[in-house]
Write a structure and sequence with these properties.
Shape: elongated
Radius of gyration: 23 Å
Helix content: 10-25%
Largest sheet: 6 strands, antiparallel
Oligomer: single chain
Structural class: alpha+beta
Distance between the termini: 64 Å
Strand content: 25-35%
Length: 173
């Protein structure tokens, strides 16, 4: 004779174990925590959430790889060589933008917050070349993975500039 307890025990033992909460690595499908690293798919221009093991595969900055690990370096440039006239010449319609070297395109690209997320700007390379010549710290950026985020508050406040991981820029936008 089967008791209600036997039925409940059978139902409970046939159930698969619950899967842990969180995301999966986009390379190996391993479970990853909410706090995890990213790599950039250079060819497709997209960020990928990855586990620590997959992240470490792509940390060599000198390697010619399709994927690059996004470093966690943050630097502040309080006296960055960008004035309001140069900012206006960039024709960015808002007071914040981020700039990074896109190795697939072979040039610097700029993005700013828009209604649908990050909006790419058509950056005047002559102006960016002038900014780069005036402040060689622009060359500290790791291609595809680090960006300069620039904030231009109203007068008379100074322009703010920081070197940050590119994933932090997209998160901000």
């Amino acid at each position: 004779m089967t008791t209600p307890y036997d039925v409940l025990t059978r139902i409970r033992t046939n159930r698969p174990a619950p899967e842990p909460a969180g995301e999966r690595c986009e390379m190996c499908s391993e479970w990853i925590a909410d706090e995890h690293q990213h790599v950039v798919n250079v060819a497709d221009r997209q960020l990928m959430c990855v586990c620590r093991a997959c992240y470490l595969l792509f940390t060599d900055a000198r390697a010619e790889l399709r994927y690059r690990a996004v470093p966690d370096r943050y630097l502040s440039f309080p006296d960055f060589a960008l004035d309001r006239r140069a900012w206006e010449a960039l024709q960015i319609p808002v007071g914040v933008a981020f700039f990074f070297t896109n190795s697939a395109l072979g040039r610097t690209v700029a993005f700013y917050p828009g209604p649908a997320g990050a909006t790419e700007s058509e950056l005047d390379l002559d102006i960016w070349g002038d900014i780069r010549a005036a402040d060689p710290r622009v060359d500290l950026l790791a291609a595809d993975t680090e960006a300069l985020i620039v904030r231009v508050p109203g007068d008379p406040l100074p322009i703010e500039c920081h070197l940050v991981p590119v994933d932090a820029c997209y998160e901000f936008v």
